[in-house]
Design goal:
By secondary structure, the protein is α/β, with parallel strands linked by helices. Helix content is 18%, strand content 34%. It has helices spanning 3-11, 164-189, and strands at 27-30, 36-38, 42-48, 57-64, 70-78, 83-89, 94-103, 108-112, 116-119, 135-139, 150-151. The strands form 2 sheets. Strands 2, 4, 5, 7, 8, 9 and 11 form a 7-stranded mixed beta sheet that branches. It has a 4-stranded mixed beta sheet with strand order 1-3-6-10, with no helix packed on it. The longest helix has 26 residues, at 164-189. The radius of gyration is 21 Å and the shape is elongated.
Length: 190
Amino acid sequence: MPVSVLWALLVAPMGTDRRPGRTSDFVVNQPGSSTSWKNGSPYPVSWTLGLQDGFDTFDVELTRLSRVGIFFVAKGLPVTMSSLNVVLEDVPAGDDYFLICINSTAGITYAVSSRFSVVDANATGSNPSPASAPTVTVSGVPNALTQFAQTFGPSTNGVASPGWAGIRNQVTAISVSVGAALIGGVMLLY
């Protein structure tokens, strides 16, 4: 099992997002621990974000505990969304799947779902009603070289915005530094 997946599964349930002094209130509500997903049917994924989690977007990945590999489900989900439908197509059956909500660029894990099962399309059981949200289809076997099944719109997510809004903090920092240097120089002369 890759170290990053093991780290996400072991540390993320502790509720930290790995930034110093921060506690995450990000919780994956669905899938729950008793959930079983059937290939070919849409299943709602839902989450609740904390008020001050401090990020604009996140990515969703699907992984297994007993097998190496990740399914890249969705990239750049805006925090304004609270649910997503996922359809599995020919995904191997197993009882050790997890959804990981992560910043895949920086490697920051925000939340991990409860362990859930995936069953074959011909298995018996009821299908849940999908949420009124976008639907993403994930298919085949895990492949770390594939792209995300769905990429949502661009977001700043910590990248500077164009115009004054993008340089305001930098201008302030430079102004404070220059001001401190001038004050220090004046104090040195007297």
